[in-house]
Please model this.
Amino acid sequence: MRWCLSLLLFCFLAVVNALSSSGNRLLVVLEDATEKESYSTFLGDLEARGYNPVVESPKSDKLSLFELGERAYDHVLLFPPRSKGFGPSLSPKNIIEFMNKDGNVLLALSGKSTTPSAISSLLLELDLHLSTDRSSMVVDHFNYDIHSAAETHDVLLLQRPGQLRPDTKSFFDGEGVLAFPSAAPHTLGDSNPLLAPILSAPVTAYSYNPKEDFGSVEDVVASGSQLALVSAMQARNSARFTLLGSVESLQDKWFSATVKAPGDGKESETANRDFAKQLTAWAFKETGVLKVGKIEHHLAQDSEAPSVELNPKIYRIKNETVFSIEVSEYKYDKYVPFEVPENDALQLEFTMLSPFHRLDLQPSGKTENSSIYSTKFTVPDQHGIFSFRVNYKRPFLTSIEEKHEVTVRHYAHDEYPRSWKISGGWVWIAGLWSVVAGFLAFVIMWLYSAPTSTASTTKKTQ
Amino acid sequence: MPAKRTTAATATPSITKSLSSGPKTLTANSSVSEIVHHVWQQYLTTTPERTMLLDAFMAFLVLIGGIQFVYCVLAGNYPFNAFLSGFSAAVGQFVLTASLRMQTSTDKAKGANGMGVGSDGVSHERAFADYIFGSLILHFFCINFIN
Model:
């Protein structure tokens, strides 16, 4: 009965997880229902990938991120609000609370409208900074679309982002040009290590407020590639917050636009649709999600004997030990074997308070949807409570934090090598035995030497 | 006090005896080698056989212990338990032998009919039995410790 139930539950879970690794309930917060038409391709793509988008207005009374204290949605997509904010049910506190409960948020901004202060304070909490007037947009006189922004230069043409660092995976690369119309820039603070920029403005770009029509830009806070257009924050519980600077780039118009940069007159199609897919896939945990499978550790053996105990609770100092971990990565709709990026390493720590060993785990095998990493090492000459730890936290990948405690004991009394095995101690062994032999010889001589002398001396005294 | 007097009394005849056959009596300005030689001769003639045996064994123990210590200084103390047990066997045996010597040699002439009795009323046989018992315990510990 219970078996049947668990099977049923398993099937149900499989259906739920068919798309995103964390569910398909998507809330789209869009203030103006008429705008929905202009995003039809984008929303259609999401629906085609298995999401159930629920479009709500922030003014709606029944809108709530939580239901009976649990998350009512798995992901939230926030379009920029027209009014002063998203209202009480989407206050910064609620959105942070939503993320604390493992919900993912994708927030899109626009440079055309002033960003409300409520959103600004939410972003400040995540150490993302908007410009002080909150209504700037990015302008670039070298990388703009000459068809649509010949005068204003506010439609940026950008290359697809590559790797953030040489040791990270790139989830957003590809061919083609991205068009970012009227993008609201933001800068990344340096007190939040969980932030990672996805797309930055070109070096020739700057931030400009069209409402304050000065001839020149004064007191620039940031310019060039300091201005981020798309950034991501992955919290410690692996909840994802993504900030997209230009909501217009998701519109149907820009999914299939033909753009042309100044200078070389080559027309090209925008890759916005592909990028939007990659961005939402990452933001809603379709990519870059790691899962740990089996974790095994045991004593190393020359031949694969079945007698070796798996995951023993206790090891002895100086034991040869093998540790292996199975890691898979979620990729759109299934788990695939996880490949560590080229300049990176998955590491094992053998720790008691501080690591005694920190070793690279080498790929040692592969199953259909996971790869196995393992290493072999000698347990340090220190007894106590140790733990095998794998702590892998990288930008764009959900964190792996595994901790398995084992006891390390010292040698048992009969496990030390016998004294004669150590040649350095032979002199002392010989010394001890010569003392014993000398003692025996002395005792024998003493017993055979006794009475006559005493007799003679006693005679003399008398 | 009486013990001292008896030794003095017993010593006198033996010295006179040795003087007749041994080296000449020392003069006031004899050389160092003469003094050493005299003391040695004196020792050889006046010491009972058993005490000499004890002394020889103690000298042997000092030699063994010295070799072990020098080896430790030169070659390092790697199997430290081996050094400890080897060296402490020599030292412990030396201490036990010294106490046996104290119990048996001071009053070799006092006991009657070959029954030597120490100043504290312990017979030589009893002292020797204690010595064997103590030594066996020492050896047991040292062999165990050296593994």
